[in-house]
Amino acid sequence: MELIDVIRYGDSALLVQFEQKVEVRINRAVHALNQWLLQQEIIGVQGTIPAYCSLTVCFDPTLISFAEMSQRIVSWSYEDPSTPETNRVVRIPVCYEEEYAMDMSWVEHYTRRTKQEIIDDHTHAIYHTYMIGFLPGFPYLGKLPETLQVPRHSEPRLKVPRGAVGLAGDQTGIYPCAAPGGWQIIGQTPIPLFDGVSGKGALLQAGDRVQFFAVSPQVYRMIARDIESGNFNLKSLYVW
């Protein structure tokens, strides 16, 4: 896959643009370039910000110029692998019952599918993590089955609860903390998506594969209690 363009992004950053589409193959290339750059340990590179189909590279212009940085990037070559870059699948428990799914009835009406069909569609797919953003630890996951593709709320809610699992367009996501938001909420997970206290950071990383599985309210509360007491092992969510 070829880069589309490398453009100046202020006096201390550049933007690497790929084909402007939200597709797994393009996103894999973004993260492959990001990993390659980090492995090069280029003096002057201060940080990178991967997105759907672009990569922002921040650098110190007193240590490396835009021209030098651009030349290093265009020397990179990439071949799309036939298999995902990671074999890890992170399985996330979700309760889809009414008390945790404030928009389920609306989604049923919009998609003309039953609640069980929506749950089945949402849990059968394995999603690609395009990027982490919007909120610390918020994963943008896709691609949703066409049967679940719904628009955002025309007016966002002032507060969406932590762990809320939502739909928006052809993506699904999880709110790592209570925050305003406009995604259609069909469930909630007790799993913490971000830990800024212990330094563990985000549970999910770009490139991870994610699959949801349904749990009852009783199991949801049991997992929540185990997490609060420190008796839940987050590594149990990983399947290799």
Walk me through the structure.
The protein is an alpha+beta fold and 240 residues long. The protein folds into two domains: 5-75, Gyrase A, domain 2, CATH 3.30.1360; 89-239, Cyclophilin-like (Cyclophilin), CATH 2.40.100. It has five helices and 16 strands. It has helices spanning 24-40, 66-74, 104-111, 115-124, 217-229; strands at residues 5-8, 13-17, 45-50, 54-59, 89-94, 127-132, 139-142, 157-160, 164-168, 171-174, 179-181, 184-188, 194-195, 201-202, 209-214, 238-239. The strands form four sheets. It has an eight-stranded mixed β-sheet with strand order 12-9-10-7-6-15-5-16. A hairpin with a 2-residue loop joins strand 9 and strand 10 (171-174). It is globular and about 55 Å long. The two termini are 28 Å apart. 29% of the residues are buried. The model has no long low-confidence stretch (mean pLDDT 93).
